[in-house]
What we know:
With 80 residues, this protein is mainly alpha-helical. It has helices at residues 2-22, 31-57. The longest helix is centred in the middle third of the chain and has 27 residues, at 31-57.
Amino acid sequence: MAELLRAGLRIGILVFGLAIFMLPFQPRDSAEFVVTVLAALVGGVFALGVVVLARTENPALPPAPGERKEYNKDSRGREH
């Protein structure tokens, strides 16, 4: 599932990035400008949807209460 999400994110960013890159070169009163803006919107919404899906699919685990980090202990296992 992670590889599929990663590929989807790359596709969304590619579509968004290429559309934004081409936008300044399109005449504002042409159909190409409208299509390029719509492609940028679709790519951005798709990438945002993939990010939201990835965050809900793999939520971050909360830290255990009262647990000390390993770097706070010396070589004998005692805390500083």
